[in-house]
C-alpha cells in the first residue's frame, strides 16, 4: 500500500472519530433543549453534562488532526472552517440551559476548604444559618476533573519539513515525561518512525541508554535548519500556478504559502532576504562548483555575498590555470572569433543517442528497459518480477518516481501499468487462425537511408549504409567504417554541436570520400566528412510491418533494407544534399511514408504506423469456435459440429471468406438476385449453406442498400428538418391580410326545395388567416376560374383585400383533379387571377401539400363539422350556406391555446377576438343603460381590448408554435447531379420515372426542400420528399 493510500485512510478515520464526537455533543444539546419543557429528561442531562467538557476537548484534538491530514493531502478545501464555532456554540448553550434547569448544588465547607482560591474566603459566607453547607456551583465543577482523550503520537517518515513538528510533539508527549522510562520511550520512538528514520535507529539494542543514543542520532541526521530552509524555498519557487481564480485554487495557494512561511519564520534566519537570493543563485551553479562551495562554507545560513565571492575566486583560479578557453564544463565557453575567421562551429542535426546516457536494468545495455529484447522475450510474470526487483515505475518502467505519480497508462487497457506488463484476457494458442486488428499508436518517423558505394584506400568501392539528412551542416562517417575503408583522417579541431547546441564528443578528424550510386559509376561526388565514433542508433528503431515493403515493391529503392534496424555508417548532410536529390516525389497512402527520388534510388521519408509487438499490442479475435481447417486443395473451411448430419460436404464445411474480399460481395449479390431480392434474414441463410462469411450481416445490408430494385421498393426519401415559421405567422397583422386558400368537397346540394329537384355538386372555398388562424368559408358551385373569381370577390368585399395569397399548385384538391390542375396550373387562368386581384400570389411546388399545412388542417376541420351536421341529408343552397356560416362561427370560436386552469380566467383567446372582440358563438353581453361614457372613452376602451388580445396572442399563442412536432432531425442536403427516382402516388414504385437534379432551392436556413429535376419529359419542380436518391457506388 502506498503512502497516499495510507494518508487517505488515516484521514477517513480521523473524520469518523470527529463526527462521532460531534454527534454526542449534539445529543447532549438536544437533551438540554428538551429539559426546558420536559422535567423527565433533566436527570439524564445531569449525568450527560459531566462528559461535555471531555467531549469538547476530544473535538478540538480530532478536528486539529483532520486539519493536519487534509493539509498533507492538499485537500484543505474540504475542511469546514465554521464547524468549530458551531460546536462551541452548542456546548455553551447546553451548559447555560443545564444551569437554568437544575437547582444550585450544595458543597460542604470541608470540600470548599480543599480548593485553592485566588483570595481569602470571607468568613461571613459560613454563617451559623448555613452551618456546614454553602452554595458554590463553580467549586463543584472544579472538584470534578475533566477526562480528556488520549493524544495520538506523531509519526515521522524522513521528510525534513515534518521534522520540527515531530520533534516538538514527541518531546512534549514522551521525551520530557519523567514518568516514562527510557526503555518505554525507545519503544514509543520505534513505533513513530517509518522508512529511512527507522533504518537510522534499527541497529540500537533495547537498553536504558538506547533512547538517548537513538534520539541523538535522529537529531544529528534530521535536525538541520539550513536543509529545511532550502527545501521550503524550493517548494515555494516550484509552487504551481493557479489556472483560474476559484475557491479551491486560492485555498491551495494560501495553504502552501501560509504553512511554509510560518516554518521559515520559526527558523529565525538572521538575514532571510540574503538567504533567499543565495538560494536562487546557488541553483544556477554547476554541481561541482556547488559541492566545492559547500565544503568551504561554514555558515549556518549562507548569504548571496558569500556565493558571489566564491564564484569570483573560482573564476580567478580557472584563469590562472589556463582554462579560460578550454574549460571542462558540459557547455564550454568559446572566445568570439573575428568576422573573417573560417573556423566556425559546425552543427549536425542528427538524432544522435550517445549524449543521452541510458542503461538497461536487465542487460546493462545503452537502451531503455522497454526496448530491451531480453525483457520483451521474458514472460509477463518475469517482467513483473524484474520491475519489482529494481523498484521501477510500473507504468513507464523508469526510476525516480512512484507509480501513482506517473501520468501515463497502459496503451491497451488504459489501466495503471505498462503495455509490456499487460495480461491478455484471451489465452493465446501457438498458431490459431485469427484476424489481427492493430491498435492506434504514435507513428514512427522514418528517416531517409541509402546504400552507397564509397571508394577505399586501394581504389575499390565498398557498400556503406548512409543517412541522408538535409538539416545537418556537415557530413560524417563512423570511425569503424573509416578503418574498414583503410582511410586515415586528417587532424581537425573545429567543435561539432548537435541538437540543443550540445557538443558532439570524440571528433577524430576529417577524411575525403568519393561517393557514387551502387547501380552506376556516375556521378561521383567528393565530400569532406568528419570522423565520429558513432552517428546515430540503428535505423529504424524497430522493424517495420511487411505492408510498407509491399507498397513499394515496384520501386528501385535506395536502401532495400530500409525496414530492418541496421547501423548507419555515413551521414550525408546539406553540403552535398542538392547533388543527390531530385525533384520527384510520391505518396504511398495514409499511414505510410512518402518516397523521394535521388541518384541512389527512391528514398522513403515520413511517418509510418508500426505495430512492433503484435502479441502484446493487438486485439486477437479468435476463430477457434469455428474449428477452421485446410482441405485438400488449400481452401480454408469451417470445421463446425455437423459432421454426423446428412448434409453435403460443402454444407457441412462451408468455405471461410472474409467480408472485405470482393469474392464475398459477388457471392452476396448473386444470392440476392437468385432469391428475388430477398430480405437480409433469408439471404444470410441461403449464403451460409455454402459459404461462411465473417461479419456477413453488415455485408448483406450494404449490398441491399446499393440494389436499385430494393431502393425503389423501400422508397426511402430524405426528409428535411421542419422549416422556421415565416414572418407573417409570428408578426402582428390585420386579420386576413395574408391568407391561404384551399378547396374542400365535393358535397351534394339540391337546386330547389322540391321533392324531385336535381342534386348537384357543391364545393367549399376555405380562406385561412395565416396570422390569427381565422377561417372564412364560401360555397362554390363550379370548379371554374369564373366561379372562383366570384368567390374571391365575395371574400374581399367582406374581409378586405389581402396583401398575399398562398395556395397549392398540384393535384391535392379532393375530387375533380383534372379541373383543379387546369384552374391553378394553366397559364391563362393564372393571368386572369393575377389581373383581377391586385396582390401577390404564391404557389407551393407541385406535390407538396405539407407546405400548406395550416389550410389543410382547416379543410379537415370544416369537412368534419359539415359531415356531422349534414349526416345523410341533402340541403338547398340557402340551407347549405346557413350551415356553412354556423361552421365558420364554430371554427372561429375555437381556443388558440389550451384552457387555463385559473378559475378567474373565464375566456380563452380565439380567432373571433380579432374579428369582433369576442368568440362568435358566445352569449351576447347585457345592454348597458348608463350612457354617460363618452364616445372617445369607449373607443379607447375598444382599442385597449384589441391590444390586450394581441398581447395574449404574443405571450400565449406564439409559445405553442415554438416546438417542432416532427421532422426534427437535420439531414444531408441533396446535391446537383444526384440521380433520383420521382415518386408518383398513383403508380407502382417500379414504374416511377428517373431523373437528375439540375438545380436546388435552399431556404433561409440553407436546407434544400425543393429541387428541379431533369426527366425525359422535361424539367419539373418537386419537393425533396418526393425524390428517392439512388446509390452511385457499384
TrEMBL record:
Pfam families: DUF1759, DUF5641. GO terms for molecular function: nucleic acid binding; zinc ion binding. The keyword Membrane does not apply. Signal peptide: none annotated. Residues 324-345 are annotated as: Disordered. Keywords: Metal-binding, Zinc, Zinc-finger. GO terms for biological process: DNA integration. Residues 731-919 form the Integrase catalytic domain. PANTHER family: GAG-LIKE PROTEIN, PHD-TYPE DOMAIN-CONTAINING PROTEIN. This is Integrase catalytic domain-containing protein. It comes from Schizaphis graminum.
